[in-house]
Amino acid sequence: MPRSQRNQKVSLTKTSKKGRELKQGIVSEVRKCVDEYPSVYVFSFVNLRSKLLKEVRLDFREDSRFFMGKNKVMILALGKSEQDEYQDNLRQVSKRLKGQVGLLFTRRPAEEVKTYFKALAVADHAPPGFVHDETIPLPTGSLGDWPVSMMEQFRKLGVVVEVEEGVLVNRKAINMCTAGEPISPEGAKLLALYDKKIATFTMSLLCRWSEGEFEALAEGTDDAMVTE
């Protein structure tokens, strides 16, 4: 029988009253989900954007709950050791709460959850700072079927552009991104203008806990960015 520690007090004395109340609320919500949902997963993510996460949340809205962004507080709620874990083996879940990760509480069957995340891969525009493995140039010549009114916008993005016979023309070849180097804000905007989706959004399951039983699904997490 899984052990419950519902009445265990959590110390948050190092935070302000407002912050303490917020953190205590998260602790309470996480523990409530432990009690209400039969399974909890830790997931990592790569190239996460708000709109993409929203779509995943919508897919799981009927039977699941997500928590992200407060690793230390979630660890506090679940417990770090055998002595303070909220339920048996939740300390194993806490060990995976490092870096860019989150919690998924769900009533869905395990195989259905695993299949969903294994297939999840969405091409998207790269944010500034993203490192691509290929160089994508913006050569000299016509910039494409853009209105002349776009000239100033292109210039602000570092393009040496002129109008020639009613067409925007690039006078100096540049790279929108260079292999192995972080993409600049200007480069990211240029790639988006040309609809170059070079980033792939993925979410990977690291472990599963269900009624006191723990299952490791993967090791480690990936670096990622969260952007609007």
From TrEMBL:
It holds the Pfam family Ribosomal_L10. It comes from the Eukaryota. GO terms for molecular function: RNA binding. Residues 128-193 form the Large ribosomal subunit protein uL10-like insertion domain. One of its GO terms (biological process) is ribosomal large subunit biogenesis. GO terms for cellular component: nucleolus; preribosome, large subunit precursor. SUPFAM superfamilies: Ribosomal protein L10-like. Gene3D superfamilies: 3.30.70.1730, 3.90.105.20. Belongs to the universal ribosomal protein uL10 family. This is Large ribosomal subunit protein uL10-like insertion domain-containing protein. It comes from Ectocarpus siliculosus. The lineage of its organism: Eukaryota, Sar, Stramenopiles, Ochrophyta, PX clade.
